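Need residues for this backbone.
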């Protein structure tokens, strides 16, 4: 299961929460470059990555607006 991303909303949330992108990539088990591709819509987040990222950003209840744009 893969999902489209609302890139601007997700990037804004990462900044708002103050989580380092390098740390996010580490938690997702991907490279910072892969994370950038996903955040810019070049590749898609996998279901397990969405779960981890949602938990990190505290967006579980409202994640549809971030990941299913």
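Answer:
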């Amino acid at each position: 299961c893969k999902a489209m991303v609302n890139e601007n909303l997700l990037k804004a949330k990462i900044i708002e929460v103050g989580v380092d992108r390098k740390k996010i990539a580490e938690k997702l088990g991907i490279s910072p470059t892969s994370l950038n591709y996903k955040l810019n819509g070049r590749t898609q987040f996998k279901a397990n990555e969405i779960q981890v990222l949602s938990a990190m950003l505290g967006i579980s209840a409202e994640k549809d607006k971030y990941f299913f744009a």
